[in-house]
Predict the structure.
Amino acid sequence: MSGRMDELALAAPRLVVLDAGTVALDGPAEPLRRGASARLEALGLLPADSSAAAAGPGPSGGGPAGSAATAAAARGLPRTPAAPAPLLEARGLSYAFARGAESVLRDVRLTLYPGEWRLLCGDNGSGKTTLSRLLMGLLPPPKGTVFWQGRDTARRTLYFLASEIGYVFQQPEQQFVASTVWDELLYSPRAELRLRPQDPEPEELRQRAERMLAAIGLEGKTDESPYWLSGGEKRLLSAASVMICPKRLYILDEPTAGIDYGGVRLLTNLCREAVGQGAALIMITHEPELFEGEVVKRWRMTEGQLRDEELEEAKRR
Ligand SMILES: Nc1ncnc2c1ncn2[C@@H]1O[C@H](COP(=O)(O)OP(=O)(O)OP(=O)(O)O)[C@@H](O)[C@H]1O
């Protein structure tokens, strides 16, 4: 937040957020703040506490590296830069859709760190979407193969993983739930804030939504049905509707399919901003050349096996 005072009109009573990280309460708002601050913080509408800030923008507070650094600072010890802990790992992940069926994925190993942007490339049918769904928990990975912040995701609920990971589907229509562009964009943050239909959204959220609509060039179409949009506009809206909620990881399944060059630039801006704020990003694409100017690394999927192209290149040198 910049040097100004922002008011969060969460119906009544009101929260007044001062920029230097102070929260002032106007009237009998303590119960509201106690009840809603975690959700407001997760949406980036309140300054995060120090441990959460050290770990990046995601919703679940400080990771091991962040809390260790905070603890060291609290004890007056010099800060030593901690090695970043992986956000996501796959260790020997194989997968078949049915018992006895041929494996779609074979011994996939990967590591993803906070703030890392990966392109996942490969031929049609090579297993990219299947892998991304296993990573998100939309398909159940075998025990001991996928780890989120060091913990086996087989022990995590989809509800928890969805609070940490935003997934943009290959077909935008699979994702749309609202009857206008504006409501679509605000659907997830309103749900996370548990706002009732009659509750106005907080001013910060409204402003963020307006900024995102402008960023994807849809500011003039707030009242249109998402289904009336062009194919490229639908993709941009589905990406923005997920990326409006701060997450630790975003997975985008072929978001560039059918988008023109201008649309790709708008999408790239959204992704760059998310990564700049510390989120990791996995983008499935058949057009890696569109991201040549960005700080991205590539994984390549071939018949269910994953290769890290940068790692292989580094070994060759
Ligand atoms: N629900 C399913 N049941 C059985 N097989 C499936 C299912 N979903 C996908 N497959 C098969 O798994 C393989 C990998 O599919 P997947 O969709 O992961 O590939 P992809 O690399 O994402 O392809 P594309 O680039 O065409 O989107 C394909 O052979 C596909 O037919």
Summary: DSSP finds ten helices and 13 strands in the chain. Confidence is low (pLDDT under 50) at residues 1-32, 46-72. The chain has two domains: 6-74, 88-316. The longest strand covers residues 88-95.
